[in-house]
Amino acid sequence: MLDSTTTLEQVREYYGKVVQSRHDLKTNSCCTGEALPQHLRAALSRVASEIQEKFYGCGSPIPPALEGCTVLDLGCGTGRDAYIVAQLVGPNGA
Q1: What does the radius of gyration of the chain's CA atoms come to, in whole angstroms?
Q2: Which residues of the chain have pLDDT under 70?
Q3: Nearest to residue 30, comparing CAs of 59, 65, 4, 1?
Q4: Is the pTM of this model over 0.70?
Q5: What's the CA gap between 37 and 9, in Å, rounded?
Q6: What is the DSSP string of 7-56?
């Protein structure tokens, strides 16, 4: 039987103490070798490096046309994609 308390503590230990940046990950299953799509690179360059270093995501699910849209990012981790999307939706989006 799986002990949820033990599992929670193991996850806290790993992501809270062991992994300090994406270079500390003990797996590459969360990361792709593909470069970020061109339409997102300028926005990413304006995201704080601390946020980028803690990003453990699996590529980019962000479409190119978001101007004026409302976007909800569930489970956003460090918020890297949320910071990118905030720039892409512009002043009339949310």
Answers
A1: 16
A2: 1-4, 22, 25-34, 56-59, 75-76
A3: 59
A4: no
A5: 36
A6: HHHHHHHIIIII-SSGGG-S-STT--SSPPPHHHHHHHTTS-HHHHHT--
In one-letter notation, the amino acid at residue 55 is: F
| Structure tokens, 18 | 């062991």
Q: What's the token pair of residue 90?
A: 């512009």
| Residue 91 token pair | 């002043």
For residues 19 and 13, what is the distance between their CA atoms, to the nearest angstrom? 9
pLDDT tens profile 5-17: 788 888 777 777 7
N- to C-terminal Cα separation, the chain: 43
